[in-house]
């Protein structure tokens, strides 16, 4: 088990240590009693929330909140038990509003909800190898109508194009203004959506003509990284452990999940592809692909792609990035920034 956990840590760049990072109560009258709290919680557990009352105030009642949502009320100083099964992974903010003698006071605490899923180590088989433009600083990678499309980064040289992946022949290319650093792309509702890195700007194009139809601003203060969709919503990464959910109709970011492998966050989630109901995600600067449950954020599988480096002419700066699922062949295409090859693969346990 130790060797297994070490391999997962190496592939994803995580540190397998307990966090135990909680916030102390914000007042001197009451605090949330964390004496029985573990370092982390999982979704199979419940948390029993109670207060410490060092000044022995006469408590009338307590209202309990999780992430600012009221979950229950107790009389006197009774504890409240809350089931964690419906909470997203990541930090949960507990609050107890204590009512006493016609007054009230808040006590707060932060706990961390982590994954109880042990990721499976998956393997891949190379079906075909194709050329890849070494000038392409790959950021987005997706098939549309059986044609491979790619978005690239770097200010002054960012573009997206569609091309014949077998020969490299470019059918159409759109260059971005030099002030933009191109990032992820995805096709949905006959539109092509594209992110930029730090400009907090996105673009919407006609999927057939590539004509720009709209420029939009991000509704959260985040960076733009990877992009995919499920036919109804768009999902985008921001370089942290978060994957955001976007409404393509108004471009509002409406929700997010936090990606965890066991008790550790997976930071720097990059290029995304939704394949058979799971997120396949590059992890920046790691030769690995994480397979993520889109509902919980739990990493369920790991693909060790380090063997591909032996087959391409790259430097350590040329990181693995680019995952595209071809629904026609039911195979996955992977490449990297400035790689000279792309690989068509199948995945198995």
How does this structure look, described?
The chain folds into two domains: 19-114, Immunoglobulins (Immunoglobulin-like, Sandwich); 120-348, YVTN repeat-like/Quinoprotein amine dehydrogenase (Methylamine Dehydrogenase, Chain H, 7 Propeller), CATH 2.130.10. An eight-stranded mixed beta sheet has the order 25-26-27-28-10-31-30-29, covered by helices on one side. It is elongated. It contains one helix and 31 strands. The model is unreliable at 17-26 (pLDDT under 50). It has 349 residues and is mainly β. 3% of the residues lie in helices and 52% in strands.
Shape: elongated
- Please report the number of helical segments: 1
Main sheet specs: 8 strands, mixed
DSSP summary, beta strand count: 31
Strand content: over 45%
The name CATH uses for the topology of the largest domain is Methylamine Dehydrogenase, Chain H
What is the gyration radius calculated from CA atoms? Answer: 23 Å
Count of the separate structural domains: 2
**What is the highest CATH level, the class of the largest domain?**
Mainly Beta
Strand order of the largest sheet: 25-26-27-28-10-31-30-29
**Helix/strand-derived class?**
mainly beta
Gap from first CA to last CA: 18 Å
Proportion in helices? under 10%
